[in-house]
Amino acid sequence: MDAILAAAAQVFEAHGYAAGTTNRIAIKAGVSIGTLYQYFSSKEAIAVALLEQHIADTGHRLHEWVGHMVVEQHSLSEALNDYVTDMLEMHSRQPRLQHILLEETPIPERVHQALLESERQAAKTVAGLLRLYPEVRQSGLEHTCFVVVQSVESLTHRFAAHPDDEFIPRATFVNEVVTMLLAYLTCEARHE
Amino acid sequence: MDAILAAAAQVFEAHGYAAGTTNRIAIKAGVSIGTLYQYFSSKEAIAVALLEQHIADTGHRLHEWVGHMVVEQHSLSEALNDYVTDMLEMHSRQPRLQHILLEETPIPERVHQALLESERQAAKTVAGLLRLYPEVRQSGLEHTCFVVVQSVESLTHRFAAHPDDEFIPRATFVNEVVTMLLAYLTCEARHE
Amino acid sequence: MDAILAAAAQVFEAHGYAAGTTNRIAIKAGVSIGTLYQYFSSKEAIAVALLEQHIADTGHRLHEWVGHMVVEQHSLSEALNDYVTDMLEMHSRQPRLQHILLEETPIPERVHQALLESERQAAKTVAGLLRLYPEVRQSGLEHTCFVVVQSVESLTHRFAAHPDDEFIPRATFVNEVVTMLLAYLTCEARHE
Amino acid sequence: MDAILAAAAQVFEAHGYAAGTTNRIAIKAGVSIGTLYQYFSSKEAIAVALLEQHIADTGHRLHEWVGHMVVEQHSLSEALNDYVTDMLEMHSRQPRLQHILLEETPIPERVHQALLESERQAAKTVAGLLRLYPEVRQSGLEHTCFVVVQSVESLTHRFAAHPDDEFIPRATFVNEVVTMLLAYLTCEARHE
DNA sequence: GATGAATGAGACTTCATTCAT
DNA sequence: TATGAATGAAGTCTCATTCAT
């Protein structure tokens, strides 16, 4: 039941995994606790379903973004700005949820593998797009894109979870991150 | 009692915040549960103390690193490599602890402010060091350094917590991050 | 519905009374839980119906055995051997069911009385048969037969439920029980 | 805590295993539910402890009886009467408990083996006593005693659980059982 | 009649915290 | 000051039963 998952997302977001009780989820979803357990075999199963949904969701967003960029022929700078802004907005909507699912939930190995795979996939997808930009350094692009994806993921999450608007406004933050990525993608390769 | 905090760090690291019971902490610390409660008024108080210790610790490490760099006159690239390696090593030793303290603990506002302040301080400290390097772009250096600090923090944590060695080995990862920071710090300013 | 009772017998046998859920019974019977409740007002009602069926069944078996013995003119020893073997085989097929019905189900008084009555009846029936054997001591035959019936019931159940084949093989066990009953039925009366 | 075991015995006796809730046990024992779980790791552990206590208890009773008989030089008939009376009295005090522990509790294999062993031991102990009586048939005495022990166990339990005083008074019942055992123990061996 | 999704009381169990010793 | 047995609120999950379709 989607209502249960939606309720669970809100409850986990608000209370964390441990304090996000199945009863609270059921109440928020407007169903009885018994009904909840007819659709999900355990609390963990709910978290896993949520995580899988999140993984799929992130994949879709990324593909949409890539498609959009290809069609619109935005500049590299615009493309990155779009990407960072989109991710920051998404994490701001539910700043805690993703990390709760990733860090507080006992994830089955299967799902853990799916998660790693989806991150590799994301790196490849982004690489596919960036290959179209001539100013982007092509050597080692997949590793570079992996770091790009990780950077965007973790920086936007961090800022969304603990914003420090007084010190650095949101727009400035996005701008800085884009600058960093741009510099990274267009610099000469460094040899250790 | 430092023994209690040390025990708590290990227990939280191993079991998470919710499953890290006060009894387990007391046993690991070699004291009775009663004694534990004579030094800390609640489980939350332990986590907060741990977080404050962590904040102070991180500050010290940063200062030491800066001092070391100033004395040794390392190149910018070497300096960044040092920094990233150090942080990655630290997060690898206790991949979960920092995020447990940051995300699973109900932090009092006072500590939250201290945390933000320490991050601003870190940005300033790093800026102080980097100002010594002529190749570093000086405009907006504090904001830039804030993003640098955040990037190192979050990327090393992420890689330590969920390494994907098959896809990208640790050394390569460090190298890529350094490359990114180097490019970021030395690039021309971008205007939106 | 006989299908429900048959399913209930299997489910109780396999899981016990408490863990023998009405849903499992319904599934095994190939009907929905709603249908089950249209034929039986409660879980307890199913157990009671099963017990009543068991009581009737046991009565029939006994009568058949008696009829058979009368016709075939078996020796007393053969007759007892038949009886014990038959009961042991029956209890081996469903070692738990009878005791579940007797001990784990809250039996209504009416059924409890029917149960006692059926055991008295059984004693009388057996007495009716044994009276035909001249070697059987006739004094106090009904009480004696009551003990005979109880012995066979409880000993065969016990052996079926917790066999100790290593210590005493099944055939030996049957033989010993028959020997005991034979001795009991043909001995001189004892006066206290 | 012995109070908990005593309370558990009463609660199981009164409600059965499934309905004998840990809360009821705790209340009856006059402790909180938390205390109960400090002494027993689970509901099953309580039942197992109770069963082990019962096994030990039965062994002691048997030994005491044997010692008593040897010293007092009672006749075989008196000895058996003592035995049956004692067991009937014991089962009458808690008619359901033993079978609840035996049939409704998920017993670990270790305890199951201990149970079988204790029954073999009982047969041997009884055989040791009966060997002293010249009128007792000596051939196959251990198997015979096994059946004797099983008979007394199961008949007294059955009568205690579902007495039918109207049909056969308790004294008469004991008398009949003793008569049966006496006949069994002193009869000529039967050959199939 | 048949269905089965929904219900919710109540079971077992955990663990932060207290307090008499 | 140190101890640790005792507490009990609160959590996850089960299952007999109902009732709208």
Topology:
The structure is a homotetramer of 192-residue chains.
Chain A: H1 2-19, H2 22-29, H3 33-39, H4 43-72, H5 76-93, H6 97-104, H7 109-130, H8 141-161, H9 170-186
The structure holds a DNA duplex (21 and 21 nucleotides).
What does this structure look like?
Chains A, B, C, D: Residues 1-58 form the HTH tetR-type domain. Chains A, B, C, D: InterPro entries: DNA-bd_HTH_TetR-type_CS (IPR023772), Homeodomain-like_sf (IPR009057), HTH-type_TetR-like_transc_reg (IPR050109), HTH_TetR (IPR001647), TetR_C_15 (IPR041669). Chains A, B, C, D: Keywords: DNA-binding. Chains A, B, C, D: One of its GO terms (molecular function) is DNA-binding transcription factor activity. 4 copies of one chain form a homotetramer. By secondary structure, chain A is mainly alpha-helical. The first copy, chain A, has 2 domains: 1-41, Arc Repressor Mutant, subunit A (Orthogonal Bundle); 43-186, Orthogonal Bundle (Tetracycline Repressor, domain 2). The first copy, chain A, has helices spanning 2-19, 22-29, 33-39, 43-72, 76-93, 97-104, 109-130, 141-161, 170-186. In chain A, α1 runs antiparallel to α2 (22-29) and α4 (43-72) runs parallel beside α7. The radius of gyration of chain A is 19 Å and the shape is elongated. In chain A, 37% of the residues are buried. Chain A contains 9 helices and no strands. The mean pLDDT of chain A is 93. The interface between C and D is large, with 51 and 51 residues. The structure holds a DNA duplex (21 and 21 nucleotides).
